[in-house]
Amino acid sequence: MISSVRGPVLSVGLDHAVIEVGGVGFAVQAAPSCLATLRRGEEAQLHTALIVREDSLTLYGFADTDARDLFWMLLTVSGIGPRLGLAMLAVLEPDKLRSALSEGNVAMLTQVPGIGKKGAERLIIELRDKVGAWTSGDSPVAPSASVVRGSVVEALVGLGFAQRAAEQAVDGVLADNSAADTAAVLRKSLTVLGRKR
Fold first, then answer.
1. Tens of pLDDT along the chain (197 residues)?
2. Which of 46, 148, 187, 190 has a Cα-to-Cα distance from 196 of 20 to 30 A?
3. What sections of the protein cross the membrane (predicted)?
């Protein structure tokens, strides 16, 4: 997984920036508040989340790990995809978003385009306990094993491995250490699959 990128900013668009890393330009989707801190030609570092789909690999960038970890947490909720998760962080700063979730503030959550009353209530039900234990400055709650499993299997399938083989490899790695993070599980799963080829 690509957890951060650092290098000169080649360009800044309305919804993304291109950052050169080792001669390669990475397009990174980001919220306007994050993009506003970047200047073309200056060096920048963004903490990133890599979302793997069958037809794309998309990097989402954040100014700090706090915002990135909250983004991952939002994606655990059914119906919340990367674009909507990023939109939530664009409208509400991490501290405000956590407060809205822990306090059950539906009105604040529905300020986000694409989040209706039912969606806001689902977010509160699923995340209230998680964000309640995670105040600013604390270590974030690690993604659950099921979230890690889904992300890694999707990444492996995107890399060309068969779905069943990917699932078996990830399940084997998680059986040894269910608390491992996504990047570690992906590395170990690739090692397992490499031995079988």
1. 688 999 999 999 989 999 999 899 999 999 988 888 899 999 999 999 999 888 888 999 999 988 998 999 999 888 889 999 999 998 888 888 988 998 889 999 999 888 999 999 999 888 888 876 544 444 444 555 666 777 777 777 777 788 888 888 888 888 877 556 677 787 788 888 876 65
2. 148
3. none
Cβ(50)–Cβ(1) below 8 Å:
yes
Packing angle of the helix pair 65-74, 117-132 (nearest 10 deg): 130
3-state secondary structure of 146: helix
Strands 24-30 and 56-62, sheet pairing: parallel
Which residue type sits at 145?
A
Assign residue 190 a region (left: φ > 0; alpha: ψ between -120 and 50; beta: otherwise).
alpha
State the burial class of residue 186 (Cβ atoms within 10 Å of its Cβ: 0-12, 13-18, 19+): buried
Inside any domain, residue 55: yes
Number of domains in the chain: 3
Of the candidates 84, 99, 132, which is a domain's last residue?
132
Which of these three, 62, 81, 108, is where a domain ends? 62
Which two three-digit tokens encode residue 39?
A: 């200047």
Place of tokens 């963004």: 46
Residue 168: domain span: 145-196
Q: Is residue 138 part of a domain?
A: no
